[in-house]
């Protein structure tokens, strides 16, 4: 459950929530790190739950010595009030026997906080792509029915590709089409839960493999930025020796 | 997989394959019951040895020792002096800690255990010595149950935890003479002095120590974790000694524990049998 860091409990009513799925290459989590550090977001609370493996470490976004000693835990919430943006960072895997509880927890927190919309950043195994998916962009999206009406025209305008459904029995014609997100962790299940619960959620994911996933994180954030306009200009990997422009 | 700071780490993907989730949604009543029974079996319980009311004890300092060097340190430098009484023990079952098999009986000496000791002449100081393995899914419950044994008003928690230096990430070369060493992590509520440098990014703490620290952070309890990085697999007296700086302000330590006591603790890790002898 959400526990505020300060004495005042922040209100998230009308905010956009961005959260990662623990997925292949940890791309969602890297993308969230990128957002938090680029937008210099302040931590407003912890997500304290028995569903995640515990972890503690010092502030990963510290830019000076004073900030370095701030303790970070396995799940924390950051906020950028000006943009009405809240970001949940999840740093550890979900305990296997607690996946269902975790999904319930997320759905109930999203509902009770009054988020206008939620965005789940995720990834899927690149090697599982079929012939169609091998062509073109590796980025995909999904919208829950509640968000379809509002955002479908916009994502179409942006030329985004919806995550394809695949045959339940490949090779058999007329077989049921279903959603398949290998390596996506809890993505499919959480998306399905949000569809059922009438929550406005968008899934933005990228096909990738394990390795150096920093470029994938940048690609995902820039893609998201085309839609949400969180940053003025695209983020890019700085080469050695380059100074900040 | 890449960490935030760009190093490439070859690890398997931590994302669980989605097929597993499909199985769980097709659970029937029997599966539910099995799941409930497993949950009950894996429950963590506190057993009070002396207190009749079972409430929480007033506490100013709680020291939690996890790992062979940490538990060995508290045994040799504090508990062996005789000024401590065992007031409670924590029972749990998992595949690596099947327990003694004797339900509701306190663990015997030498058995992996989780015991809470109270200092006789200063009853607000408690030590929790945890030498049994606490599984991932039990960490949260363990922390809540143990910390509810003590009153949190005016409480400071100190966690002593072992770690292998092989897991310590640093851009500088670590000379042989610097190992073993301590690094600390503390909650926002902890403002007092710490006895060692802070744990540098990207190093982290996991397991029981992290669970306790996370709990204290959200409950705003001043807490500090001292992680001892050692390059020896078995408990050794040098690593144990490293913890002295961490608790000397809180505990009166035995300046030089007897060689017998130290030997018993450090020999515990020796192989019991060897094919070639």
Choose one word for the global shape of chain B. globular
Distance between the termini of chain B: 45 Å
Count of alpha/pi helices of chain A = 6
At the third CATH level, what is the topology name of chain A?
Rossmann fold
For this structure, the quaternary state is heterodimer
Total count of helical runs of at least 4 residues of chain B: 8
Write the topology of this structure.
The complex is a heterodimer of chains A (245) and B (277).
Chain A: E1 2-4, E2 16-20, H1 27-38, E3 42-47, E4 55-58, H2 65-68, E5 71-73, E6 75-80, E7 85-90, H3 99-113, E8 117-125, E9 139-143, H4 145-157, E10 166-167, E11 177-178, H5 187-197, E12 201-208, H6 214-228
Parallel strand pairs in A: 2-7, 2-8, 8-12
Antiparallel strand pairs in A: 1-3, 3-6, 4-5, 6-7, 9-12, 10-11
Helix pairs in contact in A: 1-6, 3-5
Chain B: H1 19-25, H2 29-41, E1 45-48, E2 61-66, H3 68-77, E3 84-91, E4 114-119, E5 125-130, H4 139-147, E6 156-164, E7 181-186, E8 204-206, H5 207-218, E9 223-230, H6 237-242, H7 244-247, H8 259-267
Parallel strand pairs in B: 2-5, 2-6, 6-9
Antiparallel strand pairs in B: 1-3, 3-4, 4-5, 7-9
Helix pairs in contact in B: 4-5
């Amino acid at each position: 459950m959400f526990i505020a860091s300060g004495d005042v409990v922040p209100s998230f009513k009308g905010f956009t929530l961005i959260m990662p799925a623990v997925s292949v290459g940890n791309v969602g989590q890297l993308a969230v790190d990128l957002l938090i550090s680029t937008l210099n977001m302040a931590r407003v609370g912890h997500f304290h739950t028995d569903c995640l493996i515990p972890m503690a470490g010092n502030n990963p976004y510290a830019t000076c010595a004073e900030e370095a000693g701030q303790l970070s835990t396995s799940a924390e919430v950051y906020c950028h009030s000006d943009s009405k943006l809240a970001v949940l960072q999840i740093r550890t895997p979900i305990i296997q026997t607690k996946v269902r509880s975790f999904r319930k927890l997320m759905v109930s927190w999203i509902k009770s906080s009054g988020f206008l919309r939620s965005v789940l950043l995720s990834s899927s195994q690149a090697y599982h792509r079929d012939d169609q998916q091998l062509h073109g962009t590796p980025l995909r999206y999904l919208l829950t029915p509640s968000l379809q009406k509002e955002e479908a025209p916009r994502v179409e305008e942006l030329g985004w590709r919806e995550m394809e459904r695949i045959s339940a029995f490949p090779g058999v014609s007329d077989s049921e089409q279903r959603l398949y997100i290998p390596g996506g962790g809890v993505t499919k299940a959480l998306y399905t839960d949000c569809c059922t619960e009438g929550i406005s959620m968008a899934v933005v994911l990228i096909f990738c493999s394990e390795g150096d996933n920093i470029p994938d994180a940048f690609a995902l954030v820039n893609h998201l930025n085309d839609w949400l306009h969180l940053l003025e200009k695209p983020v890019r990997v700085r080469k050695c020796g380059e100074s900040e422009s | 997989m890449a960490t935030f700071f760009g190093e490439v780490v070859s690890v398997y993907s931590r994302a669980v394959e989605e097929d597993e989730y499909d199985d769980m949604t097709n659970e029937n009543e029997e599966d539910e019951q099995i799941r409930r029974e497993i949950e009950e079996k894996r429950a963590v319980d506190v057993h009070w040895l002396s207190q009749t009311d079972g409430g929480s004890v007033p506490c100013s300092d709680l020291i939690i020792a996890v790992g062979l060097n940490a538990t060995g340190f508290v045994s040799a430098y504090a508990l062996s002096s005789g000024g401590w009484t065992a007031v409670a023990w924590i029972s749990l079952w998992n595949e690596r800690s099947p327990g003694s098999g004797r339900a509701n009986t306190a663990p015997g000496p030498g058995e992996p255990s989780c015991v809470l000791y109270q200092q006789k002449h200063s009853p607000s100081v408690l030590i929790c010595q945890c030498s049994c393995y606490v599984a991932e899914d039990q960490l949260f419950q363990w922390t809540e149950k143990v910390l509810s044994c003590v009153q949190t008003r005016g409480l400071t928690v100190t966690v002593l935890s072992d770690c292998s230096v092989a897991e310590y990430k640093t851009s500088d070369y670590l000379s042989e003479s610097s190992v073993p060493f301590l690094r600390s992590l503390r909650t926002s509520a902890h403002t007092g002095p710490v006895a060692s440098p802070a744990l540098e990014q990207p190093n982290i703490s996991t397991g029981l120590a992290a669970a306790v620290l996370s709990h204290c952070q959200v409950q705003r309890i001043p807490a500090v974790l001292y992680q001892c990085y050692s390059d020896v697999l078995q408990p050794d007296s040098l690593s144990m000694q490293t913890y002295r700086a961490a608790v000397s302000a809180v505990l009166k330590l035995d300046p030089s524990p007897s060689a017998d006591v130290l030997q018993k603790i450090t020999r515990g890790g020796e192989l019991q049998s060897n094919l070639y002898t």
